[in-house]
């Protein structure tokens, strides 16, 4: 017999069914939020995976098109690889869950979320986040949960929790906050330049809602939770640490890691490993975990240096940013380019402009959004970290970093009416040593301005790190963390924004949550650093968007026509519009409201196409003057084409002021002549005159 639990959450009913389905999983919760239904399961292997030094957690979010009453597109008619939204949702579920599993746990764990139905007003992503937390909490898998997640919108200055589809469309904030009982453990946000104090208020308003959800989950765990199973610990033996310290003293390890040159540090550690391997050659048990032991030794050394001695591995002050550089136009012929360098992190961004018809089509569960005109893609080749491996396309990390930069820049983009282009920016990682996603935001902002995209303001991003001690008030927040401080620290708090406010946040942590003072300090420090980058670095490379798009970028002109005339422009089976395109070489986009965009590189041809469309959509009136091409000659007159699909006749008596016997005496096929409209003849045809044109 299954059990069902319900609570009211943001004005809608959240229901959890336990022991109803998927009973062979370690934990399963059938989630209902409104009419949104998600099956969340948690499973773990019986034994640890051998030969690894990390916790093998996999998070899956499966979108099924039947959930919104659709059949998948394409020939296969079956769901293929995960969509970008599914990957991003999996990452958001992963981030608050991963720190709460034991650090020495090496059993494979999979959290699976199967979306069965979608109510547009109840986000399946949020439902899956809650479902994974509940499924794991009631399972026998070791887990220091539960967690709860709330989404926050901002409409007319007021917070809206778990906003519905209509509210999301007008919200100035898309914030997701996950919490434990005491602390905030994950933050993800996109915002329309929301001030820092308002963002902090929103985060902790969500935290309060999360406490009610956690209390609800606690009642489920109390009745249905399984005892947590025992597991084989993969912790490094303490005896090994003591033996290592006798061979490599803490002072020697500090010298080895205290450098801002990544390659030099790696060489130092390689030599230390060689030395330890020789010393422990006869102890196979220790050799099996030596890599993890050296990692832990480095970690303890770096954390002690930062927390107790206030010394950073590269010698910087706690609030000091690495050396910065910015430039634009380094790549010829592309529509826009910029490079941003911060220490050993270097991003080159290239901007490409195209007609709106090249916007990305989205085939997913979010029925409200079917396309997007701004795309940011991020690439991370192995050479950027001095490694060699084949490229297999973007992974989850690359997709996540690209989406974060995209979210940071969307609030400052011009509207389609102001700038009728599809826009793609690509961040190529040339070198990486920490926070390439934030360097991508800086480079993208400059690349857009260099391409002539009239963004409302420049956007910069920076990341803060954290090292904590034994108590909540024993911590230090670091500005601009490099890779080593990210690996060995407790937090990667990324914040992007303008002078006016925040446009994006992403927070990853490795501990059991953050207190309010830590979050407030991190946001304050990122604002100081962001302002410095905007004013002292980016503005000196390019202060504002260029007044027009570049020489090699397509040009777009627009006009508006009566929506009822769209069919005249398109013609039967597209005959008319295709004739215009073939004749002028332009691209033409027409929206349902009659907005016509003409895209090309030859201004004369673009103007010609515009004239054709104007003629096609204009009701002919007496006195109007046109230029037409002779396409047919009869005994009684000549037929002229003024634009594809638009014809009229000049009677033989209206061709010349003198009397003529044959039309051919004056006109030949292909002649281009100027005529004046006389109105319609008795047969309803448009009638023109050549002889009445004023000379």
Automatic annotation (TrEMBL):
It comes from Jingyaoa shaoxingensis. It catalyses: RNA(n+1) + phosphate = RNA(n) + a ribonucleoside 5'-diphosphate. Residues 255-282 form a coiled coil. Mg(2+) binds at residues 486, 492. Keywords: Coiled coil, Cytoplasm, Magnesium, Metal-binding, Nucleotidyltransferase, RNA-binding, Transferase. It is found in: Cytoplasm. It is an enzyme of class 2 (transferase). Involved in mRNA degradation. Catalyzes the phosphorolysis of single-stranded polyribonucleotides processively in the 3'- to 5'-direction. Its EC number is 2.7.7.8. PANTHER family: POLYRIBONUCLEOTIDE NUCLEOTIDYLTRANSFERASE, POLYRIBONUCLEOTIDE NUCLEOTIDYLTRANSFERASE 1, MITOCHONDRIAL. Belongs to the polyribonucleotide nucleotidyltransferase family. Residues 223-302 form the KIX domain. CDD domains: KH-I_PNPase (cd02393), RNase_PH_PNPase_1 (cd11363), RNase_PH_PNPase_2 (cd11364), S1_PNPase (cd04472). Residues 623-691 form the S1 motif domain. It holds the Pfam family PNPase. This is Polyribonucleotide nucleotidyltransferase. One of its GO terms (molecular function) is polyribonucleotide nucleotidyltransferase activity. Its cofactor is Mg(2+). The gene is pnp.
């Amino acid at each position: 017999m299954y059990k069902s639990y319900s609570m009211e959450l943001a004005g809608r009913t959240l229901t959890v069914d336990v022991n109803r389905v998927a009973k062979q999983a370690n934990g399963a919760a059938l989630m209902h939020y409104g009419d949104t239904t998600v099956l969340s399961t948690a499973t773990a292997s019986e034994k640890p995976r051998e030969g690894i030094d990390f916790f093998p957690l996999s998070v899956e979010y499966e979108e099924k098109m039947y959930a919104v009453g659709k059949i998948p597109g394409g020939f296969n008619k079956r769901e293929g690889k995960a969509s970008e939204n599914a990957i991003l949702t999996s990452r958001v579920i992963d981030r608050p869950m991963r720190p709460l599993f034991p650090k020495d746990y090496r059993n494979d764990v999979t959290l699976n979320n199967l979306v069965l139905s979608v109510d547009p007003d109840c986000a399946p992503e949020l439902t899956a986040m809650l479902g994974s937390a509940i499924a794991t909490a009631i399972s026998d898998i070791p887990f220091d949960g539960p967690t709860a997640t709330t989404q926050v919108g901002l409409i007319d200055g007021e917070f809206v929790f778990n906003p519905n589809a209509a509210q999301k469309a007008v919200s100035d904030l898309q914030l997701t906050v996950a919490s434990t009982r005491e602390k905030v453990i994950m933050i993800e946000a996109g915002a329309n330049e929301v001030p820092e104090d308002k963002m902090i208020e929103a985060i902790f308003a969500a935290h309060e809602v999360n406490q009610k959800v956690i209390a609800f989950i606690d009642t489920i765990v109390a009745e249905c939770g399984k005892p947590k199973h025992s597991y084989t610990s993969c912790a490094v033996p303490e005896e090994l640490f003591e033996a290592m310290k006798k061979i490599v003293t803490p002072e020697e390890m500090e010298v080895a890691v205290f450098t801002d040159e990544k390659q030099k540090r790696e060489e130092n550690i390689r030599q230390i490993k060689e030395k330890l391997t020789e010393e422990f050659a006869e102890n196979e048990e220790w050799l099996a975990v030596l890599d993890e032991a050296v990692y832990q030794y480095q970690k303890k050394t770096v954390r002690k240096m930062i927390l107790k001695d206030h010394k950073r591995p590269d010698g910087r002050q706690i609030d000091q940013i690495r050396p910065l550089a910015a430039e634009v136009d380094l790549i010829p012929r592309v529509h826009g380019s910029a490079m941003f360098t911060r220490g050993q992190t270097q991003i080159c961004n290239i901007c490409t402009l195209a007609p709106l018809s090249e916007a990305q089509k989205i085939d997913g569960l979010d029925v409200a959004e079917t396309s997007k005109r701004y795309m940011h893609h991020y690439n991370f080749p192995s050479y950027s970290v001095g490694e060699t491996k084949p490229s297999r396309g973007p992974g989850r990390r690359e997709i996540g970093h690209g989406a974060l930069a995209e979210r940071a820049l969307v609030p400052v983009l011009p509207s389609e009416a102001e700038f009728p282009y599809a826009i793609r920016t690509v961040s190529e990682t040339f070198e990486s040593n920490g926070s390439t996603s934030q360097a991508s935001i800086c480079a993208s902002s400059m690349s857009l301005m260099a391409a002539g995209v009239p963004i409302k303001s420049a956007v910069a991003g920076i990341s803060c790190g954290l090292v904590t001690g034994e108590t909540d008030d024993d911590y230090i927040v670091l500005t601009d963390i490099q890779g080593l401080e990210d690996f060995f620290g407790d937090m990667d708090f990324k914040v992007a924004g303008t002078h006016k406010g925040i446009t994006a946040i992403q927070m990853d942590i490795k501990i059991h949550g953050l207190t309010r003072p830590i979050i407030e300090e991190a946001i304050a420090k990122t604002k100081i650093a962001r302002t410095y980058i905007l004013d002292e670095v980016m503005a000196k490379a390019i202060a504002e968007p260029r007044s027009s798009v570049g020489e090699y970028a397509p040009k777009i002109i627009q006009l508006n026509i009566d929506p009822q005339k769209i069919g005249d422009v398109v013609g039967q089976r597209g005959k008319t519009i295709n004739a215009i395109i073939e004749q002028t070489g332009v691209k033409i986009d027409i929206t349902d409201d009659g907005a016509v965009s003409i895209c090309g590189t030859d201004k004369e041809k673009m103007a010609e196409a515009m004239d054709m469309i104007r003629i096609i959509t204009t009701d002919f009136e007496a006195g109007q003057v046109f230029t037409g091409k002779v396409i047919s000659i009869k005994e009684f007159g000549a037929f002229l084409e003024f634009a594809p699909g638009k014809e009229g006749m000049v009677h033989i008596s209206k061709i010349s002021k003198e009397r003529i016997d044959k039309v051919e005496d004056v006109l030949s096929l292909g002649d281009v002549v100027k005529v004046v409209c006389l109105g319609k003849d008795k047969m309803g045809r448009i009638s023109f005159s050549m002889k009445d044109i004023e000379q």
